[in-house]
Design a protein that fits this description.
The protein is an alpha+beta fold. The chain contains ten helices and ten strands.
Length: 315
């Protein structure tokens, strides 16, 4: 069997493993599977990219400049204020393209090692308002996706409470927000006297990062295990047409015969589910089996009563 040297890369190792696979009558399927995996071009390309990055990392390169984007802006401004020849005009057009500008911004981010979000300092008046041990400052980083949580107002205290955490959403992935937590502030804005719709609007408009001031629940609920329950839909469902759903934006639309994976049945009325094969990993709300059956029975009853009122009795 050939011997690999210390300088051999991962893609050389992969090629060697592929060449050493021999037919085995007792493990035909396993050997065929390994051969297909090792022969996949995308895997070979991935290994080569990995080696290039490792080689680049070992060189420990240092950036020549930490503000290339600012330098490009200065050059553009200089070229725009003076007569230019053909070469300078071409340089001006090149520096003005959005793709190159974006690349320079990325270069500066890497050069300055400004990768992770910076946590905000604790408010100065934190001790005046709350007990130090009872307040939690949470900062979540999200894209254009929703936060993945619904809220409600406590009827007795008026506090804004986290009512539901959607599986796969930003709040669920963070592991820092739990059902029952009391929400005090969103990005420094107090929410005590705001309507839930206004709070949802603030949450939806927050992009990049969002800072929450939370009073944790007295007893945080244990994270539910995936139920791994799969169901085939027997009806079509559009949450935008359902007036009973607590949050239409959190609903999961589906068609008849779609396969759904139910990931949470904690709420007896509204389950959380995902469409099998969907690239969206966030779960959505669907009516539970019991709730949907009750609605159908009620509709049948109402329909029967209305029908009986229109039928005249024989004389």
């Amino acid at each position: 069997m050939p011997v690999l040297s210390e300088d051999s890369g991962l893609h050389e190792t992969l090629a060697l493993l592929t060449s050493q696979l021999r037919p085995d009558s007792n493990h035909k399927e396993e050997m065929g599977f390994l051969r297909d995996v090792f022969s996949e071009k995308s895997l070979s390309y991935l290994m080569k990219i990995h080696e290039k990055l490792r080689h680049y990392e070992r060189q420990s390169p240092t950036p020549v400049l930490h503000s290339a984007a600012a330098l490009a802006e200065d050059v553009i401004e200089e070229l725009q204020t003076t007569p230019v020849n053909n070469e300078e005009k071409e340089l001006l057009q090149l520096l003005s393209t959005p793709h190159l500008r974006a690349m320079l911004v990325v270069h500066d981010t890497v050069a300055q090692k400004n990768f992770d979000p910076v946590l905000p300092p604790l408010p100065d008046n934190l001790d005046d308002d709350f007990d130090e041990e009872s307040v939690k400052i949470v900062r979540l980083v999200k894209n254009k996706e929703p936060l993945g949580a619904t809220i409600r107002r406590d009827e007795h205290t008026g506090a804004v409470i986290v009512a539901r955490i959607m599986r796969g959403g930003a709040a669920d992935r963070s592991g820092l927000v739990h059902v029952g937590d009391e929400l005090k502030e969103v990005n420094g804005i107090a929410v005590l006297h705001k309507r839930p719709e206004e709070i949802s609007q603030i949450l939806a408009q927050s992009q990049g990062s969002i800072t929450l001031k939370i009073i944790p629940a007295i007893k945080e609920e244990d994270r539910l295990k995936d139920s791994k329950v799969f169901m085939r839909a027997l009806f079509c469902y559009n949450p935008k047409e359902d007036k009973a759903i607590p949050c239409q934006e959190a609903g999961l639309p589906f068609k008849r015969r779609h396969i759904l994976e139910v990931v949470s049945q904690d709420d007896p009325t509204w389950w959380q589910a995902k469409r099998v094969g969907d690239t969206n990993l966030r779960a959505g709300l669907i009516p539970s089996k019991q709730f949907q059956e009750r609605r159908l029975n009620y509709r049948r009853t109402i329909g029967t009563l209305q029908y009986s009122k229109t039928v005249k009795k024989p004389l």
